[in-house]
Amino acid sequence: MSLFTADVNIENVITTDPEKARALENDIRAKILDMLADEEMTIEQIHAELERRGDEKAETTVRHHVNILKDAGMVELTRLEEAGGGTLKYYRSNTRVFFYDLPESAEESLAGASEATRDALRAFIETLFAEHGDEIRTVAEELKPCEYCSTQHYEEFILRELLNRSLTELSEDGDLDDLLD
């Protein structure tokens, strides 16, 4: 006899590779990504900004975190500068991470927008697969199985990546800001 039963629907989908997921296991790295998304900084500048935000870490620890993000492909070296007999390395994030929670009222407030988005996406996906389904399936066949998943959703992953990359490009080009104004 069951004491409790509940249906659970998927509400969130996170798409990333395991190395990036491991890199985000530490909240300091998320803060570093946030800082480096808007400007390039040296280890010393990152260290100072973390201290200003209340996170006192040794400079070697900051360097360690930046190296993990760099190895995961989330931070890049952008500039080398000679300074005082040494070389300053400047880093910049190529990854933006959003750490927000929608307010409790969001589901009700956004119900109409959610339905309109779902309907528009349904039509868009039908068109996309009609015009580019063969290309998507070809890439899906080249994907390696996820070591953590028993069920593979290759086409869904590719679709989410296409949507995410397109939104990112619109944002970086400034077109998204224009559309949201």
Automatic annotation (TrEMBL):
This is ArsR/SmtB family transcription factor. InterPro entries: ArsR-like_HTH, HTH_ArsR_DNA-bd_dom, WH-like_DNA-bd_sf, WH_DNA-bd_sf. It comes from the Archaea. Residues 19-107 form the HTH arsR-type domain. CDD domains: HTH_ARSR. SUPFAM superfamilies: Winged helix' DNA-binding domain.
